Amino acid sequence: MKALTLLFALLFSVAAWAQQTPHGAIYGNKPNSAGAMDASKVEAFMGKKIRITATLTGKVAKVTKTKGGWFDLQGANGKVIKAHFQKAGINIPASLAGHNVIAEGIASKEFIADDHQHLAGNGKPQKNNITDSVSFAVTGLEVDK
What we know:
Blueprint: H1 2-19, E1 26-28, E2 37-38, H2 42-46, E3 51-65, E4 70-74, E5 80-85, E6 100-111, E7 130-143
Parallel strand pairs: 2-3, 5-7
Antiparallel strand pairs: 1-7, 3-4, 3-6, 4-5, 6-7
């Protein structure tokens, strides 16, 4: 009976230890932190550009989906930057929420299709459909703090 109790205690302690996110953990490729900018400044840095390659530092607001690595980074003025890994096989722990990270990837402004005719080529003039929200396709992430 004592051996069974000890086995259960050991299993639960290993599961709890596996949930912790250690400093320096890397998911995907190791990001190049040279020239990293704060995630709150990426929108201003992009200006009129639609897509840029960048390394961002910021705090993970929440992990929305562990499988595939979907999470939210805190941006400027309470906005969030929707981030996900480009490679679908990368999984991140839910305990990543609240940690500061360094993430490398492609930041892009999101579009809204005008009358859902963005592919049909209906001949109508298109408006400027760029929104002020930014998404980030991550190639590599490192837990900073």
